[in-house]
Amino acid sequence: MSEIRKLYDEAAALHAQAKALLDAGNLDAEKTQQVDELLNQVEAKTGQAKRLERAEEAEKALSQPDRKPIFSGGGEIKMGGRVLAPEEIVDLKALLPFAWYMVSADGQEMPYGAAMRMFLRKGEREIPDLARKVLQAGTAPAGGYLVQDVFLNTLLVKEREASAMRRIANVLPPVPSGSVIIPAEENLFSDASWTTEVGSGSLDTVEPFGQRRLTPHPLAKRVKVSNTLLRLPTFDIEGYIRDRMAYKFMIPEEDAFINGTGVGQPLGLLNTPGLPAYTTSASLTVTADDIINWIYRLPASYAPNARILCNRAFIRKVRLMKTGDGQYLWQPGLQAGNPNMILDTPYELSDRFDDGLDASDVWQASAIVAVIGDFSYYWIVDALQMSIQRLVELYAENNQTGFIGRKEADGMVTLTEAFYALKVKA
Fold it and tell me: Which residues lie closer than 8 Å to 153 by C-beta, 6 or more apart?
């Protein structure tokens, strides 16, 4: 039995135990805690299974026979018209997980693979002119600001793995510079009217289309690496820096995509002017009926691609709720390819989405606790110009080298009617 199937089976068994306790009724504090623990394990196991599914998909994509193998076993290994030294072979083997930007389809080493690793290990002054031209993004002071689009693209892939908004929003291709102009439907035409054979219907004088501008805003992060590790050919310096920067860029970006003010940062989903909202029927309360009414407020044209974005605390509250006929609102994805859902709508969790609860675990007045919508109408754009600055002297006493990464991103809702927020009544 595969590990993925085993995790799904274990999750199904745990869910059955929790459901049996819930269906028995009369839950005291001890049984309620037991149900919560069982459902937490269900979420954890299904989440782990889905991560393994994504890893298998990535492994299959990387193992496609679309390039010559780097190592065929035995004999000399040639690359770029010369025989590689033993230490170079060790270095290449350490970087095999990232071979897509090291080796081209004809088996020849790409300029980027060598140039980027050389810069990260030795600095701009120690790399040849050809490598500098490959990575140069513009004139900079000593120390060097260097960039490469492959590094940026792989960093964005890593960000997507950790960022709920990047997984479900419409992420545009990186722009070289400037802004992205989006046509926006500012005003709606009135509906057509029944008329006579010679009638022309009502006349609209509004101009329906306007413009919205996405301008990537700068974001920076500093990473320190031991010089001892830098000297080790088996240490994947590029992968380490990329992964750490991806995670540290993801946190403020995710927060801005959800809560941003739009001033020097993205305009967050929750701060979008005119965002439609459904307010719960009772003060400081969210009931099953509220969630049903909220989900079905979203226009039918956006429902097929709808997702729910919320904090994990919201799911903790919802998974104990039932519809009028006794069915639970929360539906765990116990099959491969099936996501966890609320009323047949998949959801994404983000820690940057406020849970809307006070210290006593009571809903807060006027809190927005979830948003449902077609997130293809939230656009994210990145600037192609990402730079990495290498700091040598600043951390010399600690035998470390610093790297400052700078990237730019922006995001905003392009169509407000594609979303509906759930708001707690004051």
Answer: 174
